[in-house]
Amino acid sequence: MLEIKGLEVKLEEEDKQILKGVDLKVGAGEVHAIMGPNGSGKSTLSYVLSGRGGYEVTGGSATLDGIDLLDMEPEERAASGLFLAFQYPVEIPGVGNMTFLRTAVNAQRKARGEDEMSAADFLKLVRSKAKDLKIDADMLKRPVNVGFSGGEKKRNEILQMAMLEPKMCILDETDSGLDVDAMRLVSDGVNALRSPDRGFLVITHYQRLLDHIKPDVVHIMAAGRIIKTGGPELALEVENNGYAGILEEVA
Amino acid sequence: MAKSNALMQLKADATALRLAGLTLPPGATWAQEARQQALGRVTAMGLPHRRDEYWRYTDPATLTVAEAAEAAVLVADESPVFGDIDALQIVFVDGVFDAEASDDLTMTGLEVDRLATATTKDIHWAKDLYGVLEARGQSPVERTLAAFNTAFATDGVVIRATAKVAKPVRLLYLHADPTSDVVLHHVIRVEPGADLTVLEGGPAAARLSKVMEVDVADGGAFHHVRSQGRDHERRAHTHTFARLGAESTFKFFTLTVNGRLTRNECVIELTGNDAIAHVAGACVGDGKDFVHDDTVFITHDAERCESRQVFKKVLRNGATGVFQGKILVKAGAQKTDGYQISQSLLLDDDSQFLAKPELEIYADDVACSHGSTSGAIDDTALFYLRSRGVPAKAATDLLTLAFLAEALEEIEDDRLAEDLRDRLEAWMARRS
Lengths: 251, 432
Fold this sequence. Notes:
heterodimer; B: alpha/beta; 20 strands
């Protein structure tokens, strides 16, 4: 599904290489986790895949179902089925959450040559998905993420994911800023979306999220490369011993 | 402020040249006197010049010359603004009252007359207001174009509301002649406890001079929402002079779309305690020839009054936006609550926003605040929207509308706000 080969990325504005040849393959139905110390390039990878500006790809490739992601605009990547749950969801004053969701859903449908969803169908769908995530009517009415707590913002990300039904979901530190209850709510939301034809790439610092969202594969990223890949036990090793041992072992 | 003799002479000469050959319209004695006095003000102050303090950002030359520049008539591809609102409609075509297109001018709680008729009557209530509020508004800042309007206006409406009026009065200004040079003058009196809404829409003319004098008596309420027409080359300078009595309300919103030069001046005097004045505007401009200027002067001369100014401009392709807003709090106007915000969204590096917020306060127990910002579309928000599948243009439009939404929220009637929002969306849709 998602295939990254030798991806090299530098900052556009300065001569700083962030990713130095990332190789990664997430198959349909799989959940992969990426862990790694601060500054290892995890968030950069998520941004480059989703098309944020400010980065320059200097080598390698990234494809989704064989289609070159890096050549597309962010909105085209989204319509092709890529979704990034932001580490810091953006506040947009003046745009109602509901309007935002509906615009996004219909824009993607239009891009794929599908009919727009009727207002009634949309309302029904959004209400049922919101209920699962304990998102009340008020949160749907308010401007996007404005005045939302940390947990509300993350739940709102998962709601968008549920509404857009992407093929490939990237979760960038979705656990940051969440208390135990919120983490469970968000994880349940993610787990509900797990399906044989959907892939997940979960970026996190902590094992605890992976207790809830059980990964099939765990990657350790350091200094712009995947340095070790293993099963769920790798995350436990990090939790118990930190990154030092793994870094030494690879060096 | 002392002006240089050279500038004074320059203005005097230009004014004499402009007035040469013009004669004051005929009318009843009171009207003739009002016009004569207004002409006296024009001569004494002189027509505005680029070097005048309040015309530094907007060149008045095309407004003061004798000949109005041509402005192509836009063939509208949409229904007239506020057309779906049940209202008493009054139509002017190139500044001339169109009886056929207008509704019957009688309605409960309302007295409506054409200015052309009122000024021929020996006795008319409008005589206490015509040119009176305009004259009061000439100090401390000169507004000579308004005095010129008082001197030469022959048409307009005079409206007196004596009760809560059931439906709004809608003034529709059609533009038919590409060379029309129009002077309109309205006088509005809201009697104690009465409540009136006036809607205005349409481009009016190639060049429009419009003055509206509004006197809101104690406990009266006046709501005013207008949309200035889309014609690309039109020019307009409008003045609204309002005097507010105790516990009265004045709420005014303007949407400006296109036009080559628009100068909207609003002069409000809060003269009775506990009065409320809200003035707001949204403007969208495209192209280097576009200049839009909001010049507001609010005087607090009573206790516990509230004033609020909210102005937002979206500018692209080299458009220019100007905001000059002042709150003057006189000695004794204690517990004044004054607020002012002016913001621009610059969609490219060529556009500019020139803002001059001013506070002048002589009372010691007041709360006044002002702010002004200029910025581009927020890249982070834009990426967030695009990452959800919203195409770049649609995302930019959504953020642009969101920027203007705060100004539109100043409109109390949702139907009116919705109508204007639709027009803004259409404006953006026309630009790819």
